[in-house]
Amino acid sequence: MPPHIFIFKLFHAIQTRTLNMKNLVLTIIILVLTLSINAQTDSCNVLLEKISGKYTGKCLNGLANGKGKSIGEDTYIGTFKDGLPNGKGKYLYKNGDTFQGYWLNGQKDGKGKFEYTINGEKYTLIGYWKKDEYIGVTEPDISYRVASATGIMNYTVEKNELINEHDKDITFSIKSAFTDFTPTDLIIDKSSGQIVQSGKKISISQYFCPVHCEISYTILVGDTRKQCRFIIDILEEGKYTITISN
C-alpha cells in the first residue's frame, strides 16, 4: 500500500475511533518502518546501469556501500563501494548465467567462477579476471597484494622504478583530513626489514620478498576511537609509496 494512502486510512480510523490504543501504536510503528525503508531505497543509488533498480542494503552519502542487493535488468548480491560492485559478490545475468567472485569498481577483477549456457550445454569457467576480461587459470603477475584495509577510507599503492638495489624501501604515509600524521598508538609488524622514521613518514628498508606488513592504529571519530588496520604483502622488490587515508 502506498504510504500516502496508508496515512489517510490511519487518520480516518482515528477520527472514527475504530482503532483502540494498542492497535494504534502498532500501526504507527509499521508506518514509520515502511517510510524508513522507502526513504533508504529511494535515496541510495547504484551506478552500474544493468543492476540499477531496486536496492536493499547499506548506504553511504547516497550511494550503495557495504553489503547489499541490487535488482535491475540483472541482479548483484555482494559488497559495494561508491555505488559499484567492489569486493566479493555474485552477479546473476537475465539469461541465467552467473559470475561469482571478486569485483573492482564495477568490473570483474580477481579470482572468480563464471557459469554459462551455450546451445543448451552448461559450461564453467574458473580463473582470474582483470578489468572485466578473463586472463587465464593462473594468478597474474602482481607486485603486491592488499589483504585487509579495515577502518580505512581509502589507500593507494605506487611502485616506482628502482634505479639502485640499495634504494628499495616501502614508505607509508598516513593521512587524516588530507594531512600527514603519525598515530600515537601506531604498531607496524613486518616479516623482514628495518623501520626508519623521517618526519611523519615511516619506511621499511633492507627487506626481502615476500615481505608481510601489518599496520594498526586508532583514530578519534567524535567521542569514539576507531580501530584501523592495513595488511599488505609485497611480492616483488622495488620502491613503494603507500598512502593510507582516514
Notes on the structure:
The chain is mainly β. The chain has helices at residues 3-15, 21-43, and strands at 54-60, 63-71, 75-81, 84-92, 98-104, 107-118, 121-130, 133-136, 144-150, 154-160, 169-176, 179-180, 187-190, 194-198, 201-205, 211-221, 224-234, 239-245. The protein folds into 2 domains: 49-136, Histone H3 K4-specific methyltransferase SET7/9 N-terminal domain, CATH 2.20.110; 144-245, no CATH class. The chain has 2 helices and 18 strands. α1 packs antiparallel against α2 (21-43). The protein starts with a helix and ends with a strand.
Topology (elements, then pairings):
Elements lengths: L2 H13 L5 H23 L10 E7 L2 E9 L3 E7 L2 E9 L5 E7 L2 E12 L2 E10 L2 E4 L7 E7 L3 E7 L8 E8 L2 E2 L6 E4 L3 E5 L2 E5 L5 E11 L2 E11 L4 E7 L1
The structure class reads mainly beta
Largest sheet: 8 strands, antiparallel
Gyration radius from CA atoms, angstroms: 25 Å
Amino-to-carboxy terminus distance? 43 Å
Number of strands: 18
State the share of residues found in helices, binned by percent. Answer: 10-25%
Averaged pLDDT, please?
85
Number of helices: 2
| Lateral strand order in the biggest sheet | 1-2-3-4-5-6-7-8
Strand fraction: over 45%
Number of domains: 2
- Which consecutive residue ranges, at least 5 long each, have pLDDT under 50? 2-8, 34-41
SSE string, helix = H, strand = E? Answer: HHEEEEEEEEEEEEEEEEEE
- Give the overall shape: flat
